[in-house]
Amino acid sequence: PTELVARVRAALRRQEAPEPFVSGALAIDFDRRRVTVGGETIALTATEYELLRVLALDSGRVVTYDTLLRRVWNGRNGANANLVRIFVRNLRRKLGDDASGPTWIFNERGVGYRMAEPGRG
Fold first, then answer.
1. Burial of residue 92 (number of CB atoms within 10 Å: 0-12, 13-18, 19+)
2. Tell me: the pLDDT tens digits for 44-103?
3. Strand order in 112-115's β-sheet?
């Protein structure tokens, strides 16, 4: 897309930004694209942030691998469920979320992932 289209999309996203997501020590400020755990800013790649954003906006519901691939990777060639798993593993590591006893990102085996609801976890 052209720079103008990208700027318009960014402006629309800012207007539509939902309330910050807070679940225990995890906070996501959608307006600022800022993620903190216990008050410390967590550096995420653009893809990691988008993955977390999609999960947070659908918190409490299972988001399938197909949905994540469509919404985060825009159906790019080569993107598959294994790629999603790798990004979730990296995201959990950065957030300090243990896969064996997760606080925020839960695996729904063979289906996808579910994010803890705000205020829980």
1. middle
2. 999 999 999 999 999 999 999 999 999 999 877 778 899 999 999 999 999 999 999 999
3. 62-64, 112-115, 105-108
Exposure string for 15-33, b = 16+ CB within 10 A, e = fewer: eeeeeebebeebbbebeee
Q: Report whether 25 contacts 116 (CB < 8 A).
A: no
**What domains, with CATH codes, occur in the chain?**
3-115 (1.10.10.10)
Cα 95 from Cα 48, distance rounded (Å): 11
Token pair, residue 70, equals 């469509």
Separation CA 55–CA 37 (nearest Å): 16
pLDDT at 14 over 70: no
